[in-house]
Amino acid sequence: MAAPLPVCWLNGEFQPLAEARISPLDRGFLFGDAVYEVLPVYGGRPFLFVEHIARLERSLGEIRMRPPLSRADWAGLLTELVARNGGGDMYLYVHVSRGAEEGRNHALNPALAPTVFLMAAPLPPLDPAVRDAGVSAITAPDQRWGRCDIKSTALLANVLAKSLAMDAGATEAILLAGGRLREGSSSSVMVVREGTVAVPPYGPEILPGTTRDLALRLCARAGIPVRVAPISEAELRAADEILLGFATRGILAVTRLDGAPVGSGRPGPVALRLQALFAAYRTELAGTPLLPA
Ligand SMILES: Cc1ncc(COP(=O)(O)O)c(C=O)c1O
Question: What percent of the chain is modeled with pLDDT above 90?
Fold first, then answer.
């Protein structure tokens, strides 16, 4: 991640990020008791705003919190944060923790006011060499908790899995459990075989991905067949193409898995098609309102 942009919003105020402060008794800090979102912004407009806020609302509901702001308030604040940081392309980080405690108590305290923190960071264009060559990934055992469908800031197992990828000179760790594909340490994984895009079904073990959901919608529009079913490790290794989906980068082709080439060893036709469909969809949304009227 590039260094964040200078203006953030914390608990009701725009302020310089360098001066923003929270209590060390914040439950996000003490317990990882917080959820978050990351949204890309193209041409000053947050992308898939409703989808991201809906996922945030779902995460909050699953951890027994009410949304601290309405969708209209989120839209207004995020739009202003983008403008105050100079507009253009960037990404936004949205973080809601259960708030600052009076001590260190596991038990929930319903009287706490949540901590709401928004910041922005640059979104440099994807290096054409990366897009053209694809990226490498490793496989790793999924060592996360049982509610990976909640976008929690408690990401230690994801962080350690990403470190394994970095150690191997790879971009992503693709997590496996019980001989089946789950997802990447910070991405959804899609597998292409004979022209069909396959994804594992959603459940408590993976995060519903906004990029994956859009990819499947664009596949449906373009007549690309989709299959939602468990994917074995053997199917992953035999794939013609492996695609990563994540909000800050859209679709990336994995061209090496555990050191072996995936398919031809180059980004395949479905990766290239989906990347083009994503670019066209961004253009289609430009200038449209964030919230339906
Ligand atoms: C574990 C995990 N899965 C999937 C995703 C992809 O989600 P999205 O496409 O909404 O970025 C992410 C993104 O951060 C993630 O951390």
Answer: 96
Q: Of ligand 1's atoms, which has the minimum distance to the CA of residue 212?
A: 9
Nearest-10 Cα torsion for 80, 4, 147, 193: 100
Ligand 1 contact via 245 beta carbon (within 6 Å): yes
- The pair phi, psi for residue 65, each rounded to 5°, is -125, 150
CA of 184 to the centre of ligand 1 (A): 8
Express each pLDDT in 201-259 by its tens digit: 999 999 999 999 999 999 999 999 999 999 999 999 999 999 999 999 999 999 999 99
- Ligand 1, atom 4, residue with closest C-alpha: 187
- Told to judge if 162 belongs to the known catalytic residues of this protein, a careful annotator would answer no
Q: What is the pLDDT of residue 1?
A: 65
The closest-lying atom of ligand 1 relative to the alpha carbon of residue 207 is 3
**Rounded Cα gap, residues 37 and 162, in angstroms:** 19
Domains, the chain, with CATH or none = 7-122 (3.30.470.10), 128-282 (3.20.10.10)
Ligand 1 pocket residue status of 255, Cβ below 6 Å: no
Q: Which of 289, 155, 181, 286 is nearest to 244 (CA)?
A: 181
**26-63 as b/e: b if 16+ CB within 10 A:** bbbbbbebbbbbbbbbbeebbbbbebbbebbbebbeee
